[in-house]
Amino acid sequence: MRMSIALAGVVLATFIPSAPAAPAAADGVEPGTELDVLRQEIEALRSDYEQRIRALEQRLQAAEARSAPAVSTPPTAAIEPAAVPVAAATADRPRGFNPDISLILDGKLTSFSRDPEAYRLEGFQLGGEAGPGEEGFSVAHSELILSANVDDLFFGQLTAAIASHDGATEVELEEAYVETPGLGHGLLLRAGRFYSGIGYLNQQHSHAWDFADAPLVYRALFGDQLNDDGVQLSWLAPTDLYVTLGAEWLRGGDFPAAGASHGGLGAGSVFAKLGGDVGVSHSWQLGLSHWRADVTDRSGGGHAHDDGDATAVHFSGDSRISALDAVWKWAPAGNPTRTYLKLQGEYFLRDEDGVVRITHDPVEETWYSGEQRGWYAQAVYQFVPRWRVGLRYDHLSADNSGSDAEVLAEAGLDGSRHDPERYALMFDWSHSEFSRLRLQYNRDRSQPVTDDQWYLQYIMSLGAHGAHAY
Hints:
It is a single chain. The radius of gyration is 36 Å and the shape is elongated. Strand 13 (about 365-385) and strand 14 form a beta hairpin. Strands 1-3-4-5-6-7-8-9-10-11-12-13-14-16-17-18 form a 16-stranded antiparallel barrel. It has five helices and 18 strands. Helix 1 (about 1-15) runs antiparallel to helix 2 (about 35-65). The protein folds into two domains: about 1-60; about 100-465, Porin. By secondary structure, the protein is mainly beta. It is about 15% helix and about 45% strand.
């Protein structure tokens, strides 16, 4: 800045000639003439600019003096090394923990024509949080999410679910992982607890679903969702076509696995995602995935009795699940803010071989071979901004066999008497991307007698929240 001021002075002095030291009359110019007046005005202007330049230089010197940091080195004998804050060692390090915080408030008012405590799915062992939920008012599944970059290589996230069951408030750890977005070459490594990459909906938090509850196949196979402890490695291919490949090595400690066999390395999965655009208004994604586990004493409810109690069923053996998922989206000119259509479906096939044991007195068991299938298809249409309507159909079937048909039937695994199915219709309204109100009706034939189910739900998002997956 000082050089600029000096340069301005030189330019000014160049274009404004200096006044002579002698009186104007000495060079033949009569005082009071027009030429004499012009020279006097130029001299006054030059003097005024020189004064302004000197004033600006003084102000510059004063500003530099005020902004100069005060540097002082404390005596080494006066301060112990441990008394110096670690954050003060480097000026560019953050001086506090400042993560992104998101709170998802999810509340429901539900009504069922059948007792939810007697719920079962013929041919499937239920576990996790399978079931239609509690009747009446409930804080269904609120979430507290904390996330932040650890440094230029690592990112961390924790998701705690807050729910109410049987009048008691429970806090569950849904996710707690670190990942390495800085690896480069399209590689991403994730370690900790996370939702598995199997299927399409499983990786999404429930508040991002288009319906108030999970599809029947997710309820039957995963107890709503599959998360586990382990590591996941994925690779995004550098191609015009969207291609992601991934593999997981998991603990296998929770439903639908159990026992954390092989020293806590009892499960794993592989998955692939393909996708792309068709013109400017259409896009698609196709997924293939496979999960397997060595199961040790997986417990869960089986046949539900008239009193609402379910037989305690235990399974040990091999379990394998293969999945196919597909999504198609349409939005005029690629703009979904006014209207769009989303078509979505998934198909799952599970094969199991092992031993089923019922904890009666005496204990009964049977050799068991199970083949269970399930799928759903849904369509969601936003017909005007903020308003959507959705329709979903679910279907399950089981072809199980065992060495003792009576034990298999008592465990609720024969699957020959009824194929569960369900129709769902929903309307929702979103005032903004952070708030949603939803009304949903299910005609649920999970059991031979139809259950009419109603859900009134609100979903509110507070704080920083990342974009949802495709």
